[in-house]
Amino acid sequence: MNKILKTTILSLACIAMLTLAACKEKPVVAPEELTTDFVTITDVVPDAILEIRYYGTYNFVGTRIDGYLQPTALLSRRAADSLRAVSDDVKAQGYRLKIYDAYRPQMAVDHFVRWAADLGDTAMRRYFYPNVDKSRLFELEYIMEKSGHTRGSTVDLTLFDMNTEKELDMGGTFDWFGSESHPDCGGNAETGEYRENDTITAQQFQNRMILRNAMLRHGFKPLDSEWWHFTLRDEPYPDTYFTFPVKQL
Predict the structure, then answer these.
(1) I need a labelling partner for 155 at 20 to 30 A (CA). Which of 24, 41, 108, 142 fits?
(2) Does residue 170 sit in helix, strand or coil?
């Protein structure tokens, strides 16, 4: 086989592989499609507290995010039913769920990507990423072009202590870009064993474990970089990224 023919065959093979990979990825769903399988979280978990950060301006971008038309939270019906079980679990321990974000439309993710590419916009850096250069946000995967939230079965949340009437102290804030947000910061998240450190206290680590363990008991899986982020293991749309906006259903 001559060199030119061999190169041509290899090129065609690469094109075929890329085409096959593209065909396997499901397209983003149009706004009007499949929304009947989504619910407003507070219709299923009526005592959940909502603080929808991307509807307001206190978030790492500093403006309302595209696609958030109302300060509400949506999930697939299956994920919301599992979250209700989590709520019942933690309520028996003296806590309520506080939701920061749930379903996130693709237009919101696109907004994040545009913001991250604008290296001059660092208005919220001191609140969310003071120790990370904005030019590294893609490299470190703090910002990505696709998000599990867009599939409709991922939720960002914390616990509200009904005795103190305050958020439970997790030793770090939602959407903080840094290792302090990792579930294993300060200990072994799998065993719940605390490790003495200068970042979070034993109580703060234990508080994270209360949330994590309740979510795991009721069918959610954690993310290794964010203590607040959980996805339903048996999510109904594992390959579909939705575009419809966040508003009351």
Answers:
(1) 24
(2) coil
Which CATH number, 3.40.50.1000, 3.30.1380.10, 3.40.50.1390, 1.25.40.10, labels domain 33-232?
A: 3.30.1380.10
- The confidence band for 198, taking pLDDT boundaries of 50, 70 and 90, is confident
Task: Give the span between the Cα atoms of 90 and 132, in whole angstroms.
Answer: 34
Tally Cβ neighbours within 10 Å of residue 85. Answer: 15
Domain boundaries, the chain: 33-232
- In terms of Cα–Cα distance, which of 243, 59, 51 is closest to 147? 243
- pTM for the model: 0.88
Cβ–Cβ < 8 Å for 156, 102: yes
Q: What is the DSSP letter of 198?
A: S
Which entry of 25, 145, 190, 226 is annotated as an active-site residue?
226
Catalytic annotation on 226? yes
Element (H, E) at 213: helix 202-217
Residues 68 and 54 sit within 8 Å (Cβ to Cβ): yes
